[in-house]
């Protein structure tokens, strides 16, 4: 149940966008639960940790890249 509007949550995927300094990382197809009323997105602890580790590894290799697009599905194995 949504903490903001008590709406129903539906399992889906989303594009996670993170802005760090002068570049943007987009992780596509991230599993999440989305409120059917207000659109708030919720990530499980597992997914949140995975996102953290993806962001960590990307920051080390992409200092000269301004936009990085990652497909969550290829990183989650
Ligand atoms: Zn809601």
- Major sheet description: 4 strands, mixed
Q: Give the ligands present.
A: zinc ion
Which strand-content bin applies to the residues? Answer: 35-45%
Q: Give the CA-based shape.
A: elongated
In CATH, the architecture is Roll
In the predicted model, the low-confidence regions spanning at least 5 consecutive residues are none
Rg over CA atoms:
14 Å
Domains counted in the coordinates: how many?
1
What distance separates the N and C termini? Answer: 28 Å
Account of the 3D structure:
- With 77 residues, the chain is of the alpha+beta class.
- The chain contains 2 helices and 4 strands; from the N terminus they run βββαβα.
- A hairpin with a 2-residue loop joins strand 1 and strand 2.
- The longest helix is centred in the C-terminal third of the chain and has 17 residues.
- It is elongated, with a radius of gyration of 14 Å.
- The mean pLDDT is 87.
- The protein binds zinc ion.
- The site of zinc ion has 8 residues, from loops.
